[in-house]
């Protein structure tokens, strides 16, 4: 959903950058370009000098949520007469005469790396009374991106080089008359002040499982929001899950010590002569949420030695150029790309086989991830670093995390 002030015939493109992770200050060193860019291309001028106010005549690929007061137009039927319209993407299956390229995804964008074909969304407007040339046109302002929630902050409109477009036969190039860009950055802190996931750790050489920190995402004893969790075996579960009478906007999670909607578990499973093996499990504790097309990012030394991964898709991110220490994982479509809500099917898991090299060691937590992200949000974890001969405990660490479970 997007709200703005506008006017003329345009094609509007939303572009989600390659990995879609975040930090509390809207910047992350692992993904310095992790923004949503709104590109506003003017495709033609609309002559409407006698129109008394700014309006949207028509739209393709999206629609305004309210028409507003159009009583001043007796012989025409504008799409929207509000000066600050809110536009939403159309749903899949929209009639073809209402579509344009890259439209109609129901407002859902995947990361560019994960699914380039679904990383952009577009809609087209024919707007009146905004100017009839690049000298008189009025620049749109006050963009608000809801994706969902208050996490995105959009900057000022910047004039950029007009976009170029290839014809269907790829033999001719046309271009927009004028173009603007708006960059929207995400802050997890603005979206939600408490973490949404946590990380737990364990290994074959130490039977002590490092749990998610107590009250990572909230506490059961929170007297301000009683009833914010439900026991897994509760006979009243069906009456309190969202869609069954519970209208709370807060996630209804399974009662745990950490109270997180999502948990990621990293288990060092086996140690071979030339290889070592890790099991990753992501668990959904949210009774009202299915995470479709989820993704997981982790930072681990020397991922150049990854030999094989099972059950997940994998791509290196290489945020530091030649240094390969960051990987992105996501589910295989129609197999485990949908992380079901809390219950028997509320987890996905995979194993990774890595080669050993001269720098490999199990000491001081070398084999555990430095950072973990789930769907772009940070996960919290106590990092317990067991050695083969001793146990070391270090202070609380904020891990950028994706999912959970063991």
Automatic annotation (TrEMBL):
<dbReference type="Pfam" id="PF04833">
    <property type="entry name" value="COBRA"/>
</dbReference>
<dbReference type="InterPro" id="IPR006918">
    <property type="entry name" value="COBRA_pln"/>
</dbReference>
<feature type="domain" description="COBRA C-terminal">
    <location>
        <begin position="196"/>
        <end position="380"/>
    </location>
</feature>
<comment type="similarity">
    <text>Belongs to the COBRA family.</text>
</comment>
<keyword id="KW-0732">Signal</keyword>
<dbReference type="GO" id="GO:0098552">
    <property type="term" value="C:side of membrane"/>
</dbReference>
<dbReference type="GO" id="GO:0005886">
    <property type="term" value="C:plasma membrane"/>
</dbReference>
<feature type="signal peptide">
    <location>
        <begin position="1"/>
        <end position="26"/>
    </location>
</feature>
<dbReference type="GO" id="GO:0052324">
    <property type="term" value="P:plant-type cell wall cellulose biosynthetic process"/>
</dbReference>
<keyword id="KW-0449">Lipoprotein</keyword>
<keyword id="KW-0472">Membrane</keyword>
<dbReference type="InterPro" id="IPR056900">
    <property type="entry name" value="COB_C"/>
</dbReference>
<dbReference type="Pfam" id="PF25079">
    <property type="entry name" value="COB_C"/>
</dbReference>
<dbReference type="GO" id="GO:0010215">
    <property type="term" value="P:cellulose microfibril organization"/>
</dbReference>
<protein>
    <recommendedName>
        <fullName>COBRA-like protein</fullName>
    </recommendedName>
</protein>
<keyword id="KW-0336">GPI-anchor</keyword>
<keyword id="KW-0325">Glycoprotein</keyword>
């Amino acid at each position: 959903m997007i709200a703005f002030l506008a006017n003329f015939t345009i094609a509007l493109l939303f572009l989600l950058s390659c990995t879609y992770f975040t930090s509390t200050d809207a910047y992350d060193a692992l993904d310095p370009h992790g923004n949503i860019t709104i590109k506003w291309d003017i495709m033609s001028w609309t002559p409407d000098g006698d129109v008394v106010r700014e309006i949207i005549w028509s739209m393709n690929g999206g629609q305004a949520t309210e028409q507003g007061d159009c009583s001043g137009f007796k012989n025409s039927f504008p799409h929207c007469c509000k000066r600050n319209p809110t536009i939403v993407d159309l749903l899949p299956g929209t009639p073809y005469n209402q579509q344009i390229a890259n439209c109609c995804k129901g407002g859902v964008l995947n990361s560019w790396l994960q699914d380039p074909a679904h990383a952009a969304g577009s809609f087209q407007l024919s707007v009146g009374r905004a100017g009839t040339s690049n000298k008189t046109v009025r620049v749109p302002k006050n963009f608000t991106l809801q994706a969902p929630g208050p996490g995105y902050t959009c900057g000022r409109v910047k004039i950029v080089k007009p976009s170029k477009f290839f014809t269907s036969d790829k033999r001719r190039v046309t271009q927009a008359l004028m173009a603007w860009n708006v960059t929207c950055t995400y802050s997890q802190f603005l979206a939600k002040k408490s973490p949404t996931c946590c990380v737990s750790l364990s290994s074959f050489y130490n039977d002590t499982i490092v749990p998610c920190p107590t009250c990572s995402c909230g506490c059961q004893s929170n007297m301000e929001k009683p009833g914010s969790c439900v026991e897994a075996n509760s006979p009243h579960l069906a009456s309190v899950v969202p869609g069954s009478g519970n209208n709370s906007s807060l996630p209804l999670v399974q009662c745990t010590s950490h109270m997180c909607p999502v948990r990621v578990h990293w288990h060092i499973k086996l140690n071979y002569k030339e290889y070592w093996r890790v099991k990753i499990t992501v668990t959904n504790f949210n009774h009202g949420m299915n995470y479709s097309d989820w993704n997981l990012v982790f930072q681990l030394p020397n991922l150049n030695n990854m030999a094989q991964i099972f059950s997940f898709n994998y791509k290196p991110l290489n945020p530091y150029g030649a240094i390969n220490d960051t990987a992105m994982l996501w589910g295989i479509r129609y197999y485990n790309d949908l992380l079901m809500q809390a219950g028997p099917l509320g987890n996905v898991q995979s194993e990774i086989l890595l080669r050993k090299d001269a720098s490999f060691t199990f000491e001081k937590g070398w084999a555990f991830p430095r950072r973990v992200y789930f769907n772009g949000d940070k996960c919290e974890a106590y990092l317990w670093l067991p050695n083969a001969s001793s146990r070391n405990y270090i202070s609380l660490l904020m891990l950028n995390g994706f999912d959970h479970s063991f």
